[in-house]
């Protein structure tokens, strides 16, 4: 169906067009080209694309362009969920790779839930520090244990020497 706003009438043939008083006459005029459909007006998206590209670069987002509160624009709960997911995924990955044991995993999981780690980088740094600290403590423990064993062995040897001297003295008296 053609509407008058969608059609163009050839002005040179006003009389013929005005004489048309039936649908069939109009169809004949359309077929002969005296009445024809207007071309579709384009609705360009050029300006929209340009604006979107600028927004991706951070333009058009100043105070004057904001309608909602900061909480409405980017809820803190969403930020929290994203952060927790990132940290928990990292912890899970490290546990599966064997970089951390299940005890450290549990400790760090609770710490991350308690808002100790601001982001993934901070958590990774903490893990590295904790691992080096644990290695240092283990080395010190091993060293202390070796020292203890050495002392115990020397005490036993000394006790044996003293016992041997005592036996020698007792047997020498008799």
SSE topology sketch:
Layout: E1 7-9, H1 14-19, H2 23-32, E2 35-37, H3 46-56, H4 70-73, H5 76-97, H6 102-113, H7 120-173
Antiparallel strand pairs: 1-2
Describe it for me?
The chain has 174 residues and is mainly α. Helices cover 68% and strands 3% of the residues. It has helices at residues 14-19, 23-32, 46-56, 70-73, 76-97, 102-113, 120-173, and strands at 7-9, 35-37. It has a two-stranded antiparallel ribbon. Helix 5 (76-97) runs antiparallel to helix 6. The N and C termini lie far apart (140 Å). 5% of the residues are buried.
Query: Which geometry do the CA atoms define?
Result: rod-shaped
How many helical stretches? 7
Strand order of the largest sheet: 1-2
Q: Note poorly predicted spans.
A: none
Topology as H/E string?
Answer: EHHEHHHHH
Q: What composes the largest sheet? A: 2 strands, antiparallel
The total strand number stands at 2
Q: Could you report the average pLDDT, rounded to the nearest whole number?
A: 92
- Rg, alpha carbons: 45 Å
For the record, give the distance between the C-alpha atoms at the N and C termini, rounded to a whole number.
140 Å
| Structural class category | mainly alpha
Task: Report the portion of residues in β strands.
Answer: under 5%
**Proportion of helical residues:** 55-70%
């Amino acid at each position: 169906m053609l509407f008058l706003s969608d059609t163009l009438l050839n002005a040179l043939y006003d009389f013929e067009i005005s004489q048309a008083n039936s649908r069939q006459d109009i169809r004949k005029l359309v077929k002969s080209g005296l009445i024809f459909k207007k071309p579709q007006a384009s609705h360009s998206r050029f300006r929209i694309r340009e604006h979107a590209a600028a927004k991706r670069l951070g333009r058009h987002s100043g105070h004057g362009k904001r309608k909602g509160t900061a909480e409405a624009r980017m809820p803190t709960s969403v930020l929290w969920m994203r952060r927790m997911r990132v940290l928990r995924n990292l912890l899970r990955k490290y546990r599966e790779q064997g970089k951390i044991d299940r005890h450290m995993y549990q400790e760090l999981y609770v710490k991350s839930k308690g808002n100790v780690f601001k982001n993934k980088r901070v958590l990774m740094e903490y893990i590295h520090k904790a691992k080096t600290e644990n290695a240092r403590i283990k080395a010190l423990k091993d060293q202390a244990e070796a020292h203890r064993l050495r002392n115990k062995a020397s005490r036993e040897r000394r006790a044996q020497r003293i016992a041997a001297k005592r036996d020698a003295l007792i047997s020498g008296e008799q």
